[in-house]
Amino acid sequence: MLLGPSLVLSAILFSIGVVGVMIRRNAIVLFMCVELMLNAVNLSFVALSTAHGFGGQVMVFFVMTVAAAEAAVGLAIILAIFRHTKSVDLKNINLLQG
Amino acid sequence: MTGLDLLTPSGLMVAMLPELVVTLAAVIVLLINAWRHQTAADSRFAGMVSLAGLVAALAVLGALWRGGAAPLGAPNMIALDGYRFGAQLLILGASIGTVLLSLDYLERESLIAPEYYSLLLMATSGMMFLAGAEDLIVLFLGLEVMSVPVYVLAAFNRKSAVSAEAGLKYFLVGALASAFLLYGIALTYGATGSTALTVVGQRIAAQGIGTMSGLGLALMLIGLGFKVASVPFHMWAPDVYDGAPTPVTAYMATGVKAAGFLALVRVLMVGFGSAVDTWQPIIGVLAAASMILGNLVALAQRSIKRMLAYSSVAHAGYLLAAVWSGSQAGASATMLYLAAYVLTTLATFGILAVLGRGGERDVTLDSIAGLAQRRPAIAAALTICMFSLLGFPGTFGFIGKWAILSSITAEHHQFLAVVLVLTSLVSAGYYLPVIRSLYMRPPLNAEIHDGVILPGAARLTVALGVILLLVLGILPRLAIDRADSGARSFAGTALDRAAQARR
Predict the structure, then answer these.
(1) Which CATH code for domain A4-92?
(2) What is the pTM of this model?
(3) What ipTM does the predicted assembly reach?
(4) Which of B111, B195, B259, B265 maximizes the CB count within 10 A of its CB?
């Protein structure tokens, strides 16, 4: 079966997402990295459901729905930030400090 | 109706009735908003309807609790025990308090958008699902239904760049935390073949904790650690608490934190109870780090709102110390301390909201100086809140800290107890200057406190909070018995057996 390689691929994709969140400073790119992490987890769920039955595949549908809701809210917030600062770069977003 | 069969749709519906009532109220408020969303009166009307919905949910919850509802057969998706009822009482209380604080605040800051209340109700239903989840799928969905509306609420003041920034930071960190939690769920599912917490608990007790389930547990702890703002996952909290509208800050500090901790207790007790030796050291380190760092950094803050944000990190540390003890007493202490913290925080932020303008970022020790001369009642209420946060005898906060300490020492452990006592002593260094400033310093100028008047609904919240703090501080049995009977829901879990064996 392809369970082992799929889990490794999913772990690699998840790690790329984490590293991306750590080193990139653009809000949109950060958001894309989080989406990559969520979809890496989806791959895990699908792979694992070959061993454990349909539960994992059902979970994937929930995750996709949640990711869509998060995208709608997240892009709206990024838009609101852009109206104020004319930038989506986190190094220009620094009113709150101290 | 003592027994409900959770495997039938009707039994499950009755078991979820409090959540369903809140969800229905959210939809009704959203519909009302579609027609009436322009004037301040519309906003107030939406607030009143949500208040009615929350009180109805409270009544349903009370009926279930008094009826002693319990599952007849196998557990399914949602817990039906005293701990869930107690958790939901806390969450509904926090939401009712937040609605009352918001009524006048939104008008004063001219944030006339009644969607605020339906978002608040949706987040409340998410919290209730999160705190009552008996299955990791419900846990994840509850967490998301809670988080997504709170992202919007944090960024709710569209005219303020600070609020938008708070929303963005909370959103990015929150989405990251959800991804970690989800990966943890996936690995736990992979290791045990199930997402039901009771089944996970049985499998882990049978096969021991392996690499995959251990990694799953660690990732879930990271995810929940972000939500409850424990060190080292706390860096978002001061900025977000600072920038968000004050009633929303109160909601994040009370509701989100309570729901996160109560879910954490259930996951650790029911799902990973037999692996207590694996997670106790991790939780212990997180608890000590949160207590030390939160209290020390709070000392250096100028703005009271930021100081309270760091103090909330410290309180997350105290709560983690209660979770660390991994016993029924620890679960009871978590619930009790959360009750004290919710009451105190709601009252404190209610007062903070009237002391400042434009997000309350300007409320400092200097600006509240001499408040006791002009507004003795408000100053007295704030003083009682500070004493309760400090854990001073006679207030409910003391009872909570005492319960945590006794749950730690019952495990024959000293280190966390010593850290807790010493850091509480440090916390006097930033709570007491607030009181000194209120009573012993002259006001900056004669007119500075003129506009400080608690509007009716906020006055009700603050007064109720302070009175409950004092009453439960003197008659703690009322609350302790409830928390203990809730924690008895965990009797017979793998963790409980492990705790018995250690004695």
Answers:
(1) 1.10.287.3510
(2) 0.94
(3) 0.96
(4) B259
